[in-house]
Amino acid sequence: MRRPVYMFILGLFLLLLTACSRPTYPFVRLNVEAEGAVVAAERAAGRLPLRVAIAAVISPKATFDTYSPLLDYLAKRLDRPVELLQRPTYAEINELLRTGQADIGFICGGAYVEGEREGYMELLAVPEIGGTATYRALIIVPADSPYRSFEDLRGRRFAFTDPLSNSGRLYLQYRLAQMGETPDSFFGETIYTYSHDNSIRAVAQGIVDGATVDSLVFDALVKSEPELGKRLRIIERSRPFGIPPVVVHPDLDPALKMAVRDALIGMHKDPQGRQALAVLHVDRFVLPDPAAYESIRRMAAQVRGWK
Questions:
Q1: pTM over 0.85
Q2: For each successive 10 residues of the chain (307 residues), what is the average pLDDT?
Q3: Are residues 113 and 259 in the same domain?
Q4: CB 110 within 8 A of CB 169
Q5: Same domain, residue pair 264 and 165
Q6: Same domain, 222 and 260
C-alpha cells in the first residue's frame, strides 16, 4: 500500500478509535444524574459537590461506568453531591488539581510525580489489588506477529498512551534513554491513543505493531474479553511500580481531606463500598507509601531533565 493511502486509512481509524474517548470537554457530570436545579439547591444549602478528577486511563465511557459506584458511595458517606471531572489528557487533569478546580484526583504515577515536584499534589490513598499496591508496564504486540523482543520493534509503528503516563510512556522513554535512543530514533512512527484500552485495541487490530500499557488495565480487559486476549502477546514486563494513586492538593481543607481518606480506607468494610470495589477490580484502599514512587521519580528526573 502506498504511504499516502496508508496514512489516510491510519488517520481515519485513529479518529474512530479515539472518538469515544475524546468527548466535547469540559465533561462534568453529577454521579446521581441530578438536574441543574437540584445541583443549584445543593450549592445554595452549602453542600458543595466533591469534585473528583479521573485520568483517562481507560476511555471516558468506561471510566464513568467503572467509577460511578465509587462516586455514589462517596456521596452517601460524605453526605454531599459528587461530580466526576474528565479531560482528554493527564496534563489537563493535573491542571484541575493545581488550580483547585478539583478536590481529589485518581491519576497515574507519572502524572503524580510531576504534580508532587511542582508542589500541588500529595498522596491520599492507594488501591490494593491482589494483595499488592504495585503494577507494571507491559510491552504488547499482536499475537500473530513475528516480534519476540523489544529490539524487534525497531523501526515499527508504536502506541503511547499519554505524555505524562508512566506505564504508557515514561517507562519506555527511560528504557530507550538507557540504550542511547529516543522514541523518534528507535521507532518508525509513534502515536498517542489517550487511554490504555485504546492502545490495547490498536495492537489487537494491527493498527500499530506494539504498545506500552498498564498491566492493571490489560489484565482486567483480557479477563472481560478473552477473545481480545488471544490476539495479544506480552513481550516484556517492567519492574513493579507504585500503583496509580488517589491524590489531593496539599491546601485542601484538612477536614474534607480526612473525611475522603477515611471513606476510601473503610470501603471494604461497607456493603456498598465492597460492591464499588468489585467493579473497580480493587481489593481495598490503603494508606500510601511515598517511597513506592521513588523509581518513577528517578526515571522522570532523567527523561524530563529535572535538576
A1: no
A2: 41 40 33 45 67 79 85 94 91 95 95 96 97 97 97 98 96 96 98 94 97 95 95 97 96 95 98 96 96 97 89
A3: yes
A4: yes
A5: no
A6: no
